[in-house]
Amino acid sequence: MQNFLVGLLIIILSSIPRFTYATELTNPLGTTDITVIIARLIQAILGITGAVALLMFIWGGFQWLISGGSPEKVKKGKETLIWAVIGLAVIVGAYMLVSAVVSALESGTVA
């Protein structure tokens, strides 16, 4: 039994190099330029914050909808909507700015 286990271990260890050379790693980012990677990361973060601002817009409308005519709840819903709109405006402006910087970094010229 011990000879069988030793033989199995030798077969397994001798076949490991064949498996390691069979794989080829590819770059999922498509680039190795650090400025492009950072710019894409910033764009992804801005996209996520845009989704959160949209959810806050929906939440503010829901608060206003279920307020039942209570003045303080209506005011709270309106304030949530106002701040969500301001947040969306800031996010859109930041996204446009980052998009312009990314295109300038990728092309090397400012349009």
Describe what this molecule looks like in 3D.
The chain has helices at residues 2-21, 34-65, 71-107. It is mostly helical and 111 residues long. It has one domain (29-107). The longest helix is centred in the last third of the chain and has 37 residues, at 71-107. The protein starts with a helix and ends with a helix. The mean pLDDT is 82.
Keywords:
111 residues; elongated; mainly alpha
Structural class, please? mainly alpha
Mean pLDDT across residues? 82
User: Terminal Cα separation, in Å?
Assistant: 75 Å
Query: Approximately what portion of the residues adopt beta-strand conformation?
Result: under 5%
Number of strands: 0
Q: What's the Cα radius of gyration?
A: 28 Å
Poorly predicted ranges (pLDDT <50, ≥5 residues)? Answer: none
Instruction: Return the string of H and E elements.
Output: HHH
What best-fitting shape do the alpha-carbon axes yield?
elongated
Number of domains: 1
Work out the helix count: 3
Q: Could you give a short account of the major beta sheet?
A: none
Helix content: over 70%
Summarize the structure.
This protein has 111 residues and is mostly helical. The protein contains 3 helices and no strands.
